Amino acid sequence: QKEVEQNSGPLSVPEGAIASLNCTYSDRGSQSFFWYRQYSGKSPELIMFIYSNGDKEDGRFTAQLNKASQYVSLLIRDSQPSDSATYLCAVLNQAGTALIFGKGTTLSVSS
Amino acid sequence: DAEITQSPRHKITETGRQVTLACHQTWNHNNMFWYRQDLGHGLRLIHYSYGVQDTNKGEVSDGYSVSRSNTEDLPLTLESAASSQTSVYFCASSETGAWVSTDTQYFGPGTRLTVL
Q1: Interval B88-97: pLDDT, tens
Q2: Cβ–Cβ below 8 Å for A98 and B43
Q3: Which residues of A75-103 are buried (b: 16+ CB within 10 A; e: fewer)?
Q4: Is 50 exceeded by the pLDDT of residue B99?
């Protein structure tokens, strides 16, 4: 069974700090990686995807991918209380047929 | 605006009853997916479809079925509801006819199902 692992948290950071969310995956053949944000009681929404090694930046968000280490991370700069949510890491399986989700990391940003 | 809707949003049923959860999208997406989300398990794929008349089993398909008769709808049926199927169910859709590495999945608002 292919797995995606995330620390459940909660990860607590003060407003304005950098939040670092981490994810490891077991399927070495995976090619595409996604970060979703889910507010309590709401559905997941895509915030970033990455498929090349290195960094990808979008506003305050930076996704980092290291396929050799099977590691993907999400950095949130200048964290805001509105960033408080659960962040789900998802990996497209090697067959390209399904997303495998981690259990999510809960982020709490205090003002 | 295009959207994806689910109904009902909340459902309470009894063990052994058949239950159907509706999912309707107006994106005209080919791909549609059903997930369940449980505390401690995250999102798990139940069934998915890449187009009309196409259905595939996901990670946790036992006790569930789907059918795809048109592009817009993918209803999920619990043949004989069990307490273990108490969960939040999310439907999702994405654009292309086959999975693309940058494909975006759009999720519906979810259905909270309780089986007593």
Answers
A1: 999 999 876 4
A2: no
A3: bbeebeeebbbbbbbbbbbeeeebbbbbb
A4: no
In this predicted structure, what is the pLDDT of residue B97?
42
**Contact status of A11 with chain B (Cβ, < 8 Å):** no
> A5 — contact with chain B (CB < 8 Å)?
no
Spatial distance between the Cα atoms of A64 and B37, rounded to a whole number of angstroms: 26
pLDDT at B95: 78
Question: Which residues between 31 and 60 in chain A have a beta carbon less than 8 angstroms from any beta carbon of chain B?
Answer: 31-32, 42-46, 49, 51
Q: Express the helix, strand and coil content of chain A in percent, nearest 5 each.
A: 5, 55, 45
Are A11 and A106 within 8 A, CB to CB? yes
Q: Looking at the DSSP assignment, which residues form a beta bridge with residue B4? A: B25
Question: Residues 11 to 70 of B: which have CB under 8 A from any A CB?
Answer: 35, 40-45, 48, 56, 58-59
| Residue type at position A76 | I
